Amino acid sequence: MICGSNSFHKKGIRNGKQRFQCSNCKAYLTHKNEGVKLNNQFVWFKKWVIERQVYKYLIRDSGMSQSGIQRLFNKYLKSAPTVAIRSKNKVHLLIDGTYFANGLCLILYYDHDIRYVQLYRETNQEKYKEIKEDLENLKKLGVDVYSVTCDGHKAILKAVRKVFPQAIVQRCLVHIKRQTRNYLSTQPKTIQARELLRLSQKITHIKTLEQSAYWLVVSHFRKLHKQSNKMQIYSFI
Predict the structure, then answer these.
(1) pTM
(2) Which has the least CB within 10 A, 1, 132, 141, 172?
């Protein structure tokens, strides 16, 4: 309060904000909560980082100036969240690196079961020594890695074999699907390529052991069917 009094009461709402009046000097004020304000504005930071929106569109949508947005982002960057270990037993870890336009590579160590990032690293590329160090730190903290899912990057595979040699390592299905599409294109010309593309598109829909077994049987059957057709052609020739 202007007079220094701690006695005040609510006095209506203006522009969607609660107003207060001092019981002593009758001055009006509006309570400002900077913490709430920063949390509400975090949406623009997420659009900048995750959706890679440029300042031009952030200024248009937020109504803020470029200097104001930059000051806001600097506040977030200077107060990075503290990551705490939440699970240690039979952890199913997803390891992946995301590259940004400014050269930053963000490596996440994501716990699939509890949907939580156990650890992260900011670097410029996926390096064996750094990933090995991160896994060793997780091990020192008592994290028992049961399985690792990744995109097959050599640095990740080598580091996992070194630190957690008993861990089950599997290839990420999304990366398999994406790489298959890159190899074959979205509209392959040969029958075999089109069939392989159809099979790869179904792989991310597998959720159970029964679905996995069915996909393998179908894939194997189609492979045998093609081989049989080839044998018939050769015998005819």
Answers:
(1) 0.58
(2) 141
